[in-house]
Write a structure and sequence with these properties.
575 residues, Cytochrome p450, four-stranded mixed β-sheet, 25 helices, globular, binds protoporphyrin IX containing FE
Length: 575
């Protein structure tokens, strides 16, 4: 018996011996093969050659093969390590390598409500490689946002944001002591006296908003309330944050730009829109962003390559982000030169606050640029969404509309501008309506945080670096705190009512929770209130038959509309 396994294998029975010959002739013998040999001799002769060949093949391929196996194992360890660290937290099965991203893209954040029902108030959800620990309970939100804030004070940085210097230097993504110091400076700029001083500006734009609607109404056209609300919000941020006039509520302003150099407002906004729309929580972003969800370690090198290839999405995004930075720098330079002590905008306040050495060190030009630009990102779609969904919900509930209009009329003549105090004390029902619409449609349904120490939440030990996301949208529909959670009933927020008194204090947190909650909450509510007061002084609304029901949304950093919300404006009889 030949000890060589290859020879043993090749010692085949007679019926197929004819094959050996052809096999042998096909082999690359260095010398001519003997002609008349029995299959056995033939094979023994072949044995050495085959053995040699296989040997050398194995020798040359082995390192490659071993390296591939090692790489595969390495990748699997790398890929599954974050999961392994939180494996005890329950969660649905995932799909390799995308996790639950397709779920989120298809169903939006509502899918989390279903998961919370199945897995409880704390569960796992995977964005590609990255597991999120989702917290969907008011008391647990308090624990994450307040009680354990010291250990969970940073935000996790999602893959779409990692490449943007504008995003990384904004307050939203600042970390640790830099965040604390910057937040302290900015908080001082959002004091009630400052907000009160912005009322005339906000009222001015709310009036232009109504004029635009009246033009549309006179032509008997539908009002694209979501689009107009966004224009209003951008105009207000333009003036209050940058100190410039975008003029989007003016006629034809969106067409004013033909040449890249002499269009300030609209080109800037177009670039902003492109940049912001690339921040998607699905797999439709640039190649490096998508890769970042699966193998974050490769995202940066990949972006560095692709941003040099003109046909790549990374290239376009990089170019646009650069141009955006240049434009913001130009605005800052211009505003710095013409600024006076009376300037009320955020940029002026920020530049003025560079008095102390600490502020000067913190507020370098690139940080000022990011902090001002952040207002456009954080403060436009959010307020516009809230405003338009409130008008939409009221248009579907005439009994709410009647009470609201009565309260607004009770306040006084139509040209009376409410003061800061009026807005707080004389519009209790308006408050309830806004809260309820933010509960039904929570524009920021997920709030991202990350542990900086090992910490225990809801009975699970979460290691340092765990992404903990608060599901505000799920908490807002928890039937424990909101009976019949899908019914729009502003009275549930009546401060004198039992439901409101009994409710958990953190069951309704559309602006987040704790020291890291939205810095401009009061600014946003002031803007929405002034716009609604102005609107309902002149109009009531009904859904346009041309609008699809129910409204559909897409999820990027916040919720936004797939299609416009279209309403019919009806001029009030006594207007
Ligand atoms: C209806 C409108 C708005 C909603 C619903 C909203 C919601 C939120 C939420 C949920 C957070 C995260 C809070 C947390 O982590 O606990 C946040 C943070 C933030 N928001 Fe707003 N926001 C709105 C308007 C605005 C406006 C108008 C601005 C600026 C002018 C703004 C600027 C910010 C900033 C800078 C942060 C980061 C705060 C930090 O990390 O310290 N937001 N917002």
């Amino acid at each position: 018996m030949n000890p060589n396994p290859w020879c043993t294998i090749l010692m085949l029975p007679h019926p197929i011996s004819s094959l050996y010959k052809s096999a042998a002739t096909a082999l690359p013998f260095r010398h001519s093969p003997p002609t008349l040999l029995s299959p056995y001799t033939y094979l023994c002769f072949m044995d050495d050659r085959v053995h040699e060949m296989v040997d050398s093949l194995v020798r040359s391929c082995a390192p490659f093969f071993l390296a591939s196996v090692a790489m595969l194992l390495g990748f699997l360890v790398y890929f599954y390590l974050p999961y392994w660290r939180v494996r005890r937290v329950p969660g649905p099965p995932t799909t390799f390598p995308v996790g639950h991203i397709p779920f989120l893209a298809k169903h939006g954040p509502d899918i989390l409500r279903v998961l919370a029902k199945n897995y409880g108030p704390i569960f796992r959800f995977h964005l590609g490689r990255q597991p999120l620990v989702i917290v969907a309970d008011a008391e647990l939100c308090r624990k994450v946002g307040i009680k354990k804030f010291k250990d969970i004070r940073n935000r996790s940085i999602p893959s779409p944001a990692t490449g943007s210097p504008l995003l990384l230097k904004g307050l939203f993504l600042l970390r640790d002591s830099r965040w604390t110091s910057t937040r302290n400076i900015i908080t001082s700029l959002y004091q009630p006296a400052h907000l009160a001083s912005l009322i005339p500006t906000m009222h001015h734009y709310a009036t232009s908003f109504c004029h635009t609607i009246s033009k549309i109404q006179r032509n008997r056209e539908d009002v694209p309330i979501s689009e107009l609300s966004l224009r209003l919000a951008i105009d207000i941020i333009g003036k209050t944050a940058f100190g410039i006039e975008f003029g989007l509520l003016d006629d034809d302003s969106s067409d004013c730009c033909n040449d890249d150099d002499d269009c300030d407002g609209s080109c800037f906004l177009r670039q902003h829109t492109y940049s912001i729309s690339s921040l998607k929580m699905d797999l439709s972003g640039s190649f490096s962003t998508t890769l970042g969800m699966i193998a974050p370690v490769l995202q940066k090198p990949c972006r560095e390559i692709f941003k040099r290839i003109p046909s790549a999405a990374d290239y376009k995004l990089h170019q646009i982000n650069q141009r955006l930075c240049q434009r913001i720098d130009a605005i800052i330079a211009k505003r710095s030169s013409e600024m006076t002590r009376e300037s009320k905008d955020f940029l002026a306040a920020l530049l003025n606050s560079r008095q102390t050495r600490l502020a000067e060190n913190l507020l370098t030009d690139s940080y000022v640029r990011a902090l001002v630009y952040e207002h456009l990102i954080a403060g436009t779609k959010t307020t516009a969404f809230t405003l338009s969904m409130t008008v939409y919900l009221v248009s579907q509930h005439p009994e709410v509309e009647k009470k609201l209009v009565e309260e607004i009329d009770r306040f006084g003549p139509r040209d009376l501008i409410p003061t800061f105090d009026d807005l707080h004390s004389k519009f209790s029902y308006l408050d309830q309506v806004i809260k309820e619409s933010m509960r039904i449609y929570t524009v920021s349904p997920l709030v991202a945080r990350e542990t900086s120490q090992q910490v225990e939440i809801g009975g699970y030990v979460l290691p340092k670096g765990t992404w903990v996301w608060l599901a505000l949208g799920v908490v807002a529909k928890d039937p424990k705190h909101f009976p019949e959670p899908d019914v729009f009933r502003p009275e549930r927020f009546d401060p004198a009512g039992d439901e409101e008194k009994r409710r958990h204090p953190y069951a309704h947190i559309p602006f987040g929770i704790g020291p890291r909650q939205c810095i401009a909450q009061k600014f946003a509510i002031q803007e929405v209130k002034l716009a609604l007061i102005q609107l309902y002084r002149h109009y009531v609304f009904r859904r346009s038959p041309r609008m699809d029901l129910p409204p559909e949304f897409q999820y990027g950093l916040v919720l936004s509309f797939k299609r416009d919300i279209m309403l019919r404006a009806i001029q009030r009889a006594d207007d």
